[in-house]
C-alpha cells in the first residue's frame, strides 16, 4: 500500500504541484482506470484509448498548477481533461481519415469491444462514488451528463439524439451541473 494512501486531497495537490513523483504515481494508480473508462466511451478502440490516456496524464502533470480547488475537486478537473483530450483525438483528421478507410468488419468488432470496455469501466469508475452522486440527478439531467461526459456527444448531437431543442439541452445541462456541484459539496 502506498504511503500516500489516506492523504487528504489538498496535500496530494500540493505534492503534485511540487512535481512529486510518488504523488503522481499514486494519482495514476488510483485514477487511471476511471479516466480510462471516460476515454474509452469517447474513443472507438482500446488501443487509441491507451494513447489518449497517456496524453491525459502528461497534461495533468504539466498543468497541475492550473488546478483550482475553489472551482471543484481534483477528480472532476481530471475528468474534464480526459474528456476534452479524447474529444480532440476523436475529431483529429488522422482519426477521421482512419475511420473512413476502415473495413466494415473492423467497425463492428470495434463497437463490440467498446461496449464491453464500457461495461467493465463503468463498474470500476464507481470506486470513487461518482456513479452514486450521478444517480441522484433527475433522469432527464443524468442522461445529458452521461451523453456529454461519458459518451462524448456535443450539445447539438444530444439535442438531435433526444429530439429536443438545443436550448432545452443547454438549460437542463446547466441545471444538472448546478445540482451536481451541490451534491459534490455535500459529498466532501
What do these coordinates show?
The protein has 188 residues and is mostly helical. It folds into 2 domains: 1-125, Orthogonal Bundle (Rna Polymerase Sigma Factor, Chain: A); 129-188, Arc Repressor Mutant, subunit A, CATH 1.10.10.10. It has 10 helices and no strands. The chain has helices at 9-17, 21-42, 46-63, 74-91, 93-100, 104-125, 130-134, 139-150, 155-162, 166-187. Helix 1 (9-17) packs across helix 2, helix 2 (21-42) packs across helix 4 and helix 2 (21-42) packs across helix 6 (104-125). The longest helix has 22 residues, at 21-42. The chain is globular. Residues 27-93, 134-181 form the RNA polymerase sigma-70 region domain. InterPro entries: RNA_pol_sigma-70-like (IPR039425), RNA_pol_sigma-70_dom (IPR014284), RNA_pol_sigma70_r2 (IPR007627), RNA_pol_sigma70_r4 (IPR007630), RNA_pol_sigma_r2 (IPR013325), RNA_pol_sigma_r3/r4-like (IPR013324), WH-like_DNA-bd_sf (IPR036388). Keywords: DNA-binding, Sigma factor, Transcription, Transcription regulation.
Helix percentage range: over 70%
Oligomer: single chain
**End-to-end span in angstroms?**
23 Å
Strand content: under 5%
- What is the CATH-assigned architecture of the largest domain? Orthogonal Bundle
Ranges with pLDDT <50 over ≥5 residues? Answer: 119-127
Query: In terms of structural class, how would the helical and strand content be classed?
Result: mainly alpha
Under CATH, the topology of the largest domain is which?
A: Rna Polymerase Sigma Factor, Chain: A
Principal-axes shape call: globular
The CATH homologous superfamily of the largest domain is called RNA polymerase sigma factor, region 2, helix turn helix motif
CATH C-level class of the largest domain is: Mainly Alpha
* Major pleated sheet: none
Q: Count the strands?
A: 0
Number of folding domains?
2
> How many helix segments?
10
| String of helices and strands | HHHHHHHHHH
Mean pLDDT over all positions = 78
Please compute the radius of gyration using only Cα atoms.
Answer: 17 Å
Amino acid at each position: 500500500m502506498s504511503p500516500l494512501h489516506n492523504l487528504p486531497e489538498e496535500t496530494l495537490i500540493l505534492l503534485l504541484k511540487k512535481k512529486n513523483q510518488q504523488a503522481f504515481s499514486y494519482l495514476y494508480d488510483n485514477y487511471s482506470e476511471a479516466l480510462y473508462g471516460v476515454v474509452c466511451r469517447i474513443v472507438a478502440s482500446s488501443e487509441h484509448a491507451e494513447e489518449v490516456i497517456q496524453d491525459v496524464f502528461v497534461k495533468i502533470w504539466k498543468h497541475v498548477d492550473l488546478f483550482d480547488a475553489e472551482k471543484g475537486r481534483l477528480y472532476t478537473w481530471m475528468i474534464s481533461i480526459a474528456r476534452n483530450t479524447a474529444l480532440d483525438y476523436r475529431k483529429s483528421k488522422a482519426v477521421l481519415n482512419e475511420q473512413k478507410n476502415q473495413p466494415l468488419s473492423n467497425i463492428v468488432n470495434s463497437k463490440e469491444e467498446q461496449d464491453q470496455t464500457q461495461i467493465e469501466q463503468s463498474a470500476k469508475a464507481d470506486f470513487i462514488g461518482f456513479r452514486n452522486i450521478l444517480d441522484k440527478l433527475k433522469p432527464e439531467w443524468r442522461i445529458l451528463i452521461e451523453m456529454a461526459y461519458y459518451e462524448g456527444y456535443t450539445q447539438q448531437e444530444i439535442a438531435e439524439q433526444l429530439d429536443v431543442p438545443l436550448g432545452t439541452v443547454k438549460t437542463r445541462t446547466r441545471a444538472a451541473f448546478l445540482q451536481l456541484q451541490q451534491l459534490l459539496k455535500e459529498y466532501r
